[in-house]
Each structure stands twice: as C-alpha cells, then as structure tokens.
Amino acid sequence: MRIVIVSRIFAPEVSAASAILRTWAEEFRNRGVDVTVLTARPPRGAVIDDVPGIRVRRAPVKRDRQQYVRGYLSYLSFDVPLFFRLLFSPRADLYVVEPPPTTVAVVRLVGALRRTPYVVRAADYWTEAAELVTRNPLVIGTLRRVEAWGLRGAAKLFAAHEPLVDRLRAVGIDTPAVPIGFGADTLHFHYNGESAPEAPVFVYAGTYSEWHAPGIFIEALPTVLAHHPAARLLYYGNGEEREKMRARAVELGVATSVELHGPIPPAALSPILSSATATVASLAPVAANEYALATKVYSSLTAGCPVIFAGVGPTIAFLNASNHPHAGVAMSYDVDAVAAAMVAAADSPLPPAERSTLAQWAAQRYSLTAIAKQVADESLELVGR
Questions:
Q1: For residue 217, which of 338, 102, 365 has the smallest C-alpha distance?
Q2: What are phi and psi of 171, to 5 degrees?
C-alpha cells in the first residue's frame, strides 16, 4: 500500500497542519503503509528532523518576507511543480492533500489522469476566509469554483468539525465528509511542573492574520497594566498584521509590555505555555469565522494553561462545554470583556497542582494520535473498497 501526502507545509515548519500531518504520516507508517510526503523546503534556519520510515521530498517554494508560504503566487510556486512531481512519481493508492484550493485542484487533475483517489484535510472553507482580504468578485468567484471543484472530486473530506460540514453542504459540496475534530500534539505539549512567573504573562501563539484579529489583546493591555503594571503580552508566530500590531502598541504606550516573536518549535513553546498566566486566542467577528475553531486552545490545555478566547464560532461552545473549572473563558470580540478576563486571570494565577490536573484531563481527550487512528481507519477502508 502506498500513500502520498501532499502539503505545502510540513514538519519542521511550525504550524498546526505540520503537527497534524506528521501524526497522520506516522500512523500510516505504523500500519505498514509506504508513506511519501511531497512538500516545500522549510524556512531558513529550520532543523529537519524527519521521522524514520517516512520519505519526505521537499522542493523550492516562494516565501514572503516572514518566510511564510502565503498568497496565491506562493501557492502556485508550489502547485505548478507539484503537478509534474505527482505525474512522474511512482503510482500511489491514495493521495492525502492539505489545502489551499489550488493544491487540491492539482491533485484532482493528476488523480484523474492516474486513476488515483484522494482525500482532503478540510480545516476551513477558504473562499469565505478570502473575502476578508479582497472584495474583487473575479478573485472570489474563481476561488469559489476552484475550491468546490477540488472538494467535490475527493473520495472523502476529513472536516475539522460538524459546523464546517454543514457549511459545505449549504454551498452545494456534498462529498462524503467525516468531522474528526482537532487535537494537540501531546508528544510535545505537556506540563512538566513549570510555575507561573511573578508578573502576569499572556501568550498568543499562532498566525497574525485578518481573520484571527489578534490585536484585540494589545487594545486590552492598558487596562490590564493599570491593575498589573508588570504584565507582559507575548506573541509567537507570523502574519501580515505584525507591523500594524507593533505600531498600535506604540500608539497606546504599551510597546515595552508587548513582544512579537517569530514562530518557535512546539518543544520550545510548550514550557512557555505551561508557565503563562493564560494563553489568548481570537477570531474576528465575521461570517467566515462562524464555523472556525481556534485550534491553539488544544495545545494550551494539554500544556496546563487556561485559555482566554475572544470572537465567534464553536470555540465558545467548546470552552463552555468543557466542564473543567480551569479550562478558560470565552467571550464576544469585545475589548472591555477581554481586559476584564485578563485582569481576573492575573489576579488568580493557576497553581502548579491544578495546571498538572488540567494538562492530564486535556491529554486524555484531545490527542492528535486518536484522530490519526480514525483517519487511517477511514482511508485504508476507502482504498480497500
């Protein structure tokens, strides 16, 4: 059995998709499957630590100034060579593909030529997310058609959650779909007894994009500093909002309390989360996010850190239904509410014993390994049929 995983992003590049796809690849390998990953060269300075038994083939790709593969020129720099890489590679039994829609479309085209089925890890509906960046009807219309064409040709969609499946059905995409949920890389994200620092520390780890709108925590910081003058807000990630956020921190007079770092590996991020007062996460209050989930909450919880979420979508229901007293709080995208939640967390930081309990509770429920097993079961059954 031979499976090819196709993704512009893969380990060691820091992202949720990298951790997810690597776990899937390991699960397929553990079942005796021959696994090849077709991906892009990682950012400068990344240390490649490929897992034995998984063949990873990397090709050059266009990256932006922050070393991220973002925007359709970057995507096409991966997708055009991908067509030939797939076309002239050994025959596979199944392709597993990670969006963007252009990559899925390439896989559908090659799959038709080589009579190879494919499945898609569908974490978002890209067309609606793109509407936050452009209102050009030609761009949106083209993307909508390309995305629908790619998703409709798949043998199965591994969807992030049920609300996304419902949205895809509403726009006429009726491909068989399985809501598999999200999870955390519990190999790297765990609690090792770290204690919270004396001064409050809030951590945002992820992308700084229009649809995440993480600047709300900078807006809330003046209120937090009025109660806790030594508090700090740390960002780890990349995205096009970085300079805007930096400038806003200067305008508000809180620049010395805000740090914007690049992405770091999970093993380095985990102890930072474990000792933080709380992690913060956000999604802009737009229609595209009504069914999006802030996946960073899983890593935070398995590291023993409470979450403060601001925005819309199923993250609110997830935290409210967690039934754990220290999982965190969720609220609408409101600066005053966010500031109040940050002050409350700083007033009563979680002690080590309760952090350990939270981490254990989360690890039992939200492991990427359990999701990978489900994906492998569904995929191998599909190929068997």
A1: 338
A2: -100, 10
pLDDT band, residue 202 (cuts 50/70/90): very high
Q: Which amino acid is at 289?
A: N
Residue 14's pLDDT band, with cuts at 50, 70 and 90, is: confident
CA distance 106 to 100: 10
Q: What is the pLDDT of residues 364-377, one digit of tens each?
A: 888 899 899 999 99
CA distance 162 to 262: 32
Cβ-contact 191, 275 below 8 angstroms: no
Under 8 Å CB-to-CB from 43, ≥6 apart: which residues? Answer: 13, 63, 67, 68
Q: Record the tokens describing residue 65, joined without a space.
A: 């100034």
Q: Give residue 365's pLDDT.
A: 87
Q: Which two tokens stand for residue 161?
A: 């959650």
Q: Please state the φ and ψ torsions of residue 328, each to the nearest 5 degrees.
A: 135, -170
How far, CA to CA in Å, does 186 sit from each of 65, 370, 372?
A: 31, 11, 13
Rg (CA), the chain: 21
> Where does the pLDDT of residue 326 fall: very low under 50, low under 70, confident under 90, or very high at 90 and above?
very high
Q: Which two tokens stand for residue 54?
A: 């998984």
**Which of the four pLDDT bands, split at 50, 70 and 90, describes residue 385?**
low
Helix extents (H) in the chain: 16-30, 72-87, 101-114, 126-130, 137-152, 162-170, 216-227, 242-251, 266-275, 296-302, 314-320, 335-347, 352-365, 368-384
Six-digit token pair at 291? Answer: 């069914």
Reported confidence tier of residue 126, pLDDT bands at 50, 70, 90: confident
Domains of the chain as residue ranges with CATH: 2-183+367-384 (3.40.50.2000), 201-365 (3.40.50.2000)
DSSP state of 2: E
Closest CA to 101 of 134, 76, 136: 76
